[in-house]
Write a structure and sequence with these properties.
alpha/beta, 6-stranded parallel beta sheet, 9 helices
């Protein structure tokens, strides 16, 4: 079904894009924009992680990363920066963030967790992973820079089969419980490559907004 052909309800549906954003770049922003349109999202919240459980510690502080997110989303009324993980002690577990959001927003609003399909191959290692689908939907996105992905474990295959839908309108019919797959414009940009460019004193222009580059320069981030 084409997204534009459906009649969507006026129900609030919020996309959740989490990550270290070290730094945020056009790949993150364009993906969120396209998913907002394809899934008819009411808004997208960017949620910087303070201490990501499955990654090494970010190179710059949470305050700097959140500031760069705010600069990157400026002027887009669909986007906002949600800093709740930065004020929580310990690892930034997705389940805790979702529980906090449900306490704030209630149980009727649809939440859609935006996840790269490469990250989903490890989804069954996430803290209390089987409870996550009870609190939100999941939209899987193919990352352009990822080659052949690891096969899904049997528990994940069963999980995907149990919750999968190709009908984006299903995400509006219930507050949680579905997994869908989406394709977006392939922008082969990564935060790792941007950091490498900056450390080698190469230009990162056109990989992320100029306002963020100016911020990085002002605070001398990602230097050797």
């Amino acid at each position: 079904m084409q997204a534009g052909s459906a009649t969507y309800s006026k129900k609030t549906v919020i996309g959740l894009s989490g990550g270290t954003f070290d730094p945020i770049h056009f790949g993150h922003l364009r993906m969120a924009q396209e998913l907002a349109e394809n899934l008819h999202l009411s808004a997208v919240r960017f949620i910087p992680a303070a201490q990501p459980p499955h990654k090494s510690a970010p190179e710059v502080s949470a305050a700097h990363r959140a500031a760069m997110v705010r600069l990157g989303i400026a002027g887009n009324s669909l986007f906002s920066c949600d800093e709740r993980e930065l004020y929580r002690e310990g690892a930034s577990y997705t389940i805790d963030t979702l529980l906090s959001l449900r306490d704030e927003l209630g149980t009727d609003i649809s939440l859609v967790l935006l996840i790269g399909s490469d990250a989903f191959t490890k989804f069954d290692t996430w803290h209390r992973w089987q409870e996550i689908i009870k609190l939100c939907h999941i939209a899987l996105v193919q990352r352009p820079m990822v080659g052949k992905q690891e096969p899904l474990s049997e528990p994940l295959q069963n999980f995907l089969q149990s919750h999968y839908t190709e009908n984006a309108e299903d995400l509006h019919s219930m507050p949680a419980g579905f997994v869908t797959m989406q394709t977006v414009t392939a922008l082969d940009i990564s935060s790792t490559a941007i950091r490498s460019n900056l450390k080698e004193q190469h230009s990162a222009r056109y990989l992320l907004p100029d306002s963020i580059l100016e911020y990085i320069c002002t605070y001398q981030l990602y230097t050797k």
